[in-house]
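Continuing the series of single-chain predictions for the mutant panel. This is the parent chain; the variants come on the following pages.
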Amino acid sequence: DGGENWNIVYSSMIPFFFFFFQYWLNHDTAWIAGYDILLKTTVCGNTFNDYYTYFPPSSNGSNAFLDIFFINENTGWVCGLNIDQKNLFITTNGGYNWQYQENPVQLEGYTRQINGIKFIDDNTGWAVSSALTIIKTTNRGINWNIDLVNNFGDEYYSVEKRLKHRLWVGSSN
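Parent structure:
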Protein backbone atom coordinates (compact mmCIF):
# COMPACT_ATOMS: atom_id res chain seq x y z
CA ASP A 1 0.00 0.00 0.00
CA GLY A 2 2.92 2.35 -0.69
CA GLY A 3 4.10 2.53 2.92
CA GLU A 4 0.75 3.50 4.44
CA ASN A 5 0.86 0.57 6.87
CA TRP A 6 3.82 -1.29 8.37
CA ASN A 7 4.01 -4.66 10.15
CA ILE A 8 6.75 -5.92 12.45
CA VAL A 9 8.04 -9.19 10.99
CA TYR A 10 10.89 -9.80 13.42
CA SER A 11 11.84 -8.26 16.76
CA SER A 12 14.10 -9.15 19.63
CA MET A 13 14.46 -8.20 23.26
CA ILE A 14 18.22 -8.77 23.16
CA PRO A 15 20.13 -5.57 24.09
CA PHE A 16 22.41 -4.19 21.36
CA PHE A 17 20.62 -6.27 18.75
CA PHE A 18 21.25 -4.40 15.50
CA PHE A 19 20.34 -5.13 11.91
CA PHE A 20 22.87 -3.62 9.52
CA PHE A 21 21.81 -4.94 6.16
CA GLN A 22 19.19 -6.89 4.27
CA TYR A 23 19.58 -8.56 0.92
CA TRP A 24 16.68 -9.81 -1.19
CA LEU A 25 17.68 -12.51 -3.65
CA ASN A 26 14.18 -12.69 -5.07
CA HIS A 27 10.58 -12.02 -4.02
CA ASP A 28 10.58 -14.78 -1.39
CA THR A 29 14.19 -15.22 -0.25
CA ALA A 30 16.02 -12.65 1.83
CA TRP A 31 18.83 -12.42 4.34
CA ILE A 32 19.12 -10.02 7.26
CA ALA A 33 22.53 -9.47 8.78
CA GLY A 34 23.66 -7.57 11.83
CA TYR A 35 25.42 -7.73 15.16
CA ASP A 36 25.39 -11.43 16.14
CA ILE A 37 22.41 -12.03 13.86
CA LEU A 38 22.06 -13.78 10.53
CA LEU A 39 18.49 -14.51 9.48
CA LYS A 40 16.96 -15.98 6.33
CA THR A 41 13.42 -16.06 5.03
CA THR A 42 12.12 -18.08 2.10
CA VAL A 43 8.51 -16.97 2.55
CA CYS A 44 8.65 -13.25 1.77
CA GLY A 45 9.49 -12.25 5.35
CA ASN A 46 6.56 -13.97 7.01
CA THR A 47 8.98 -16.05 9.11
CA PHE A 48 12.74 -16.02 9.57
CA ASN A 49 15.18 -18.81 10.44
CA ASP A 50 18.33 -18.23 12.48
CA TYR A 51 21.45 -19.06 10.44
CA TYR A 52 23.88 -17.56 12.96
CA THR A 53 24.02 -20.98 14.62
CA TYR A 54 25.68 -22.34 11.44
CA PHE A 55 28.36 -19.62 11.39
CA PRO A 56 31.87 -20.33 12.74
CA PRO A 57 32.23 -18.69 16.16
CA SER A 58 34.87 -16.05 16.76
CA SER A 59 37.10 -16.34 19.82
CA ASN A 60 34.67 -14.18 21.84
CA GLY A 61 31.55 -15.58 20.12
CA SER A 62 30.62 -12.30 18.47
CA ASN A 63 30.40 -11.22 14.81
CA ALA A 64 29.25 -7.98 13.24
CA PHE A 65 27.91 -8.67 9.76
CA LEU A 66 27.88 -5.46 7.76
CA ASP A 67 26.89 -6.69 4.30
CA ILE A 68 25.68 -9.82 2.56
CA PHE A 69 25.42 -10.75 -1.11
CA PHE A 70 24.19 -13.91 -2.86
CA ILE A 71 24.61 -14.79 -6.52
CA ASN A 72 22.08 -17.64 -6.30
CA GLU A 73 20.16 -19.65 -3.68
CA ASN A 74 23.31 -21.47 -2.52
CA THR A 75 26.33 -19.21 -3.01
CA GLY A 76 26.83 -16.01 -1.06
CA TRP A 77 29.21 -13.96 1.06
CA VAL A 78 29.02 -12.06 4.34
CA CYS A 79 31.51 -9.49 5.49
CA GLY A 80 32.05 -7.41 8.57
CA LEU A 81 34.23 -7.51 11.65
CA ASN A 82 35.06 -9.76 14.56
CA ILE A 83 37.79 -9.86 17.19
CA ASP A 84 39.81 -12.39 15.17
CA GLN A 85 39.72 -10.10 12.11
CA LYS A 86 38.20 -12.91 10.08
CA ASN A 87 35.76 -10.81 8.19
CA LEU A 88 34.97 -12.37 4.83
CA PHE A 89 33.10 -15.67 4.51
CA ILE A 90 31.48 -17.70 1.71
CA THR A 91 28.72 -20.30 1.74
CA THR A 92 28.02 -22.66 -1.14
CA ASN A 93 25.12 -24.53 0.45
CA GLY A 94 22.62 -21.82 1.29
CA GLY A 95 24.11 -20.74 4.61
CA TYR A 96 24.55 -24.05 6.40
CA ASN A 97 28.35 -23.92 6.23
CA TRP A 98 30.59 -20.85 6.02
CA GLN A 99 34.28 -20.80 5.09
CA TYR A 100 36.65 -17.95 5.88
CA GLN A 101 38.31 -16.27 2.90
CA GLU A 102 41.61 -14.52 3.54
CA ASN A 103 41.81 -10.96 2.33
CA PRO A 104 44.91 -8.81 1.71
CA VAL A 105 43.77 -5.74 3.65
CA GLN A 106 46.66 -4.64 5.86
CA LEU A 107 47.10 -1.00 6.81
CA GLU A 108 48.71 0.08 10.03
CA GLY A 109 46.28 1.84 12.32
CA TYR A 110 43.18 0.35 10.66
CA THR A 111 41.19 -2.81 11.22
CA ARG A 112 40.74 -5.36 8.47
CA GLN A 113 37.00 -4.65 8.61
CA ILE A 114 35.14 -5.30 5.35
CA ASN A 115 32.11 -3.03 5.05
CA GLY A 116 30.56 -4.00 1.73
CA ILE A 117 30.66 -6.73 -0.91
CA LYS A 118 29.14 -7.18 -4.38
CA PHE A 119 29.62 -9.60 -7.27
CA ILE A 120 28.85 -9.01 -10.94
CA ASP A 121 28.93 -12.72 -11.85
CA ASP A 122 29.76 -16.09 -10.29
CA ASN A 123 33.48 -15.29 -10.04
CA THR A 124 34.08 -11.53 -10.09
CA GLY A 125 33.46 -9.39 -7.04
CA TRP A 126 34.67 -6.44 -5.02
CA ALA A 127 34.74 -5.66 -1.32
CA VAL A 128 35.41 -2.33 0.39
CA SER A 129 37.29 -1.78 3.62
CA SER A 130 37.65 0.76 6.41
CA ALA A 131 41.39 0.46 5.73
CA LEU A 132 41.18 2.70 2.64
CA THR A 133 41.17 -0.33 0.35
CA ILE A 134 39.04 -1.92 -2.35
CA ILE A 135 39.76 -5.59 -3.01
CA LYS A 136 38.77 -7.72 -5.99
CA THR A 137 38.41 -11.41 -6.78
CA THR A 138 38.04 -13.15 -10.12
CA ASN A 139 37.75 -16.69 -8.70
CA ARG A 140 34.85 -16.56 -6.21
CA GLY A 141 37.04 -15.27 -3.42
CA ILE A 142 39.60 -18.06 -3.40
CA ASN A 143 42.05 -15.19 -3.85
CA TRP A 144 41.39 -11.52 -3.14
CA ASN A 145 43.77 -8.87 -4.46
CA ILE A 146 44.08 -5.17 -3.72
CA ASP A 147 42.32 -3.28 -6.52
CA LEU A 148 42.70 0.25 -5.15
CA VAL A 149 44.32 1.90 -2.14
CA ASN A 150 42.91 5.34 -1.48
CA ASN A 151 45.67 7.86 -0.79
CA PHE A 152 43.18 10.57 0.20
CA GLY A 153 42.35 8.96 3.55
CA ASP A 154 38.80 7.93 2.66
CA GLU A 155 37.40 4.92 4.41
CA TYR A 156 35.12 2.89 2.14
CA TYR A 157 31.76 2.07 3.67
CA SER A 158 29.59 0.62 0.94
CA VAL A 159 29.59 -0.79 -2.55
CA GLU A 160 26.49 -1.02 -4.68
CA LYS A 161 25.88 -2.82 -7.97
CA ARG A 162 23.87 -1.16 -10.72
CA LEU A 163 23.46 -2.77 -14.08
CA LYS A 164 25.68 -5.75 -14.79
CA HIS A 165 29.12 -4.11 -14.81
CA ARG A 166 28.81 -0.89 -12.85
CA LEU A 167 29.73 -0.47 -9.18
CA TRP A 168 29.36 2.57 -6.94
CA VAL A 169 31.46 2.98 -3.80
CA GLY A 170 30.61 5.18 -0.82
CA SER A 171 33.38 6.66 1.29
CA SER A 172 33.93 8.87 4.32
CA ASN A 173 34.72 12.05 2.34
